[in-house]
Every structure is written in structure tokens, then in C-alpha cells.
Design a protein that fits this description.
- It is a single chain.
- The protein is mainly α and 187 residues long.
- The protein contains seven helices and no strands.
- The site of fe (ii) ion has 6 residues, from α1 and α2.
Length: 187
């Protein structure tokens, strides 16, 4: 890797891995969600994530290829289904928690916690890549990455709204009844 553009290519490859891991992990989380609004939010985010994955192919096209991309360091790091280890760890931790026997309302709170950790990693990774693209003057790439970054913020905000709008309260009470009238984001 010789320059910032190489580093951006590397990060985009990581983002592709991250999105693909999330696409695989989300159906199980959707399946375990009890709250209908949470289930719907996760289903919607799965559809958005599939679009985000395809958007990264457009980013790759804009970035172009270099000799390292398919043959060198990238091939070694991302060949044969290699995963982003950070995201893999988060997903694995989440699967372990969600496999535990727990009250449905508590499980909904746990799902939101897992999903927000995932979102925060994506927000950090997309923010970094977007800023590299801006610095390189690659406006098209920066706009594509920014579009996804905004979607990740929206997903995170919606999860916060669901958490403070009743899910956490129902988990505290150990009930599936809606006992809350509050809603809103802490951002
Ligand atoms: Fe995403």
C-alpha cells in the first residue's frame, strides 16, 4: 500500500465484508425479535443493507483496480470468504446472547443492543472511508459513502427511538405490554 487511495481501497474491501456478514446475520435477529416495530425496522434495514452492499461495487468501480487489488495484499486478506474479524466477533457475541433463554421483552432489548453495536462500527468505518475520499477529491466516491453513512445513522436513530420508546421499559418490567408513552432520540 503506497498511498491514501490504496488505504481507501482496503477499507472498501473491509466494508464489503462487513455488509455481507450483516446480510447473513440479520435474518436470525429478525426471527428472534418479538416487538413488531423492531421486527419491521430490522427487515427494512436488511433491504437497505443489500442496497448498501451493491453500492460498494459502484465505489470499487470509481476507485479502479491496481495490481495489488486482486493479486497482492487484498487477495491474501479477503480470499476464500475471509471475514472482517471485528464484525465477526460482534455478530458471534450477539448470537451467543440471543441464544440464551430470556423473556421476549428482554430479548428485544438485547437485539437492539447488538444491532446498535453493529451500526456504530459501520458508522465509524463509513465515516473514515468517506473522509479519505473527500481528501482525495473523489467526490463521487465520497457521496456514495456518505449516502450509506446517513442510512446507518438513520437506522441507529430508529433503534434508539424504539429502545427509549418502550422496549427498554418493557424489558425492565419483564412484560410485553406497552407501558410507555415516551419516544424520541438521544442523538
Ligand atoms: Fe450497512
Amino acid at each position: 500500500m503506497n498511498d491514501l487511495k490504496d488505504l481507501l481501497r482496503f477499507d472498501v474491501q473491509h466494508l464489503i465484508s462487513i455488509e455481507e456478514q450483516i446480510i447473513k446475520a440479520l435474518p436470525a435477529m429478525i426471527d428472534k425479535a418479538h416487538n413488531p416495530q423492531l421486527k419491521q425496522a430490522l427487515e427494512q434495514h436488511l433491504r437497505v443493507t443489500e442496497i448498501q452492499r451493491d453500492r460498494l461495487d459502484r465505489v470499487k468501480q470509481h476507485l479502479g483496480q491496481d495490481a495489488d487489488y486482486d493479486n497482492g495484499i487484498f487477495a491474501g486478506l479477503f480470499s476464500s470468504g475471509s471475514k472482517n474479524k471485528g464484525m465477526d466477533g460482534l455478530i458471534d457475541d450477539g448470537q451467543k446472547i440471543l441464544a440464551l433463554d430470556m423473556n421476549p421483552a428482554v430479548k428485544d432489548a438485547a437485539i437492539i443492543g447488538c444491532a446498535q453495536k453493529i451500526e456504530h462500527v459501520e458508522i465509524a468505518a463509513y465515516g473514515t472511508a468517506r473522509t479519505y475520499a473527500e481528501h482525495l477529491g473523489m467526490t463521487d466516491v465520497a457521496q456514495l459513502l456518505q449516502q450509506t453513512l446517513l442510512e446507518e445513522h438513520d437506522a441507529d436513530d430508529l433503534l434508539t427511538t424504539l429502545a427509549v420508546g418502550g422496549v427498554n421499559q418493557r424489558a425492565e418490567a419483564g412484560t410485553t405490554m406497552n407501558t410507555s408513552t415516551s419516544s424520541g432520540s438521544y442523538r
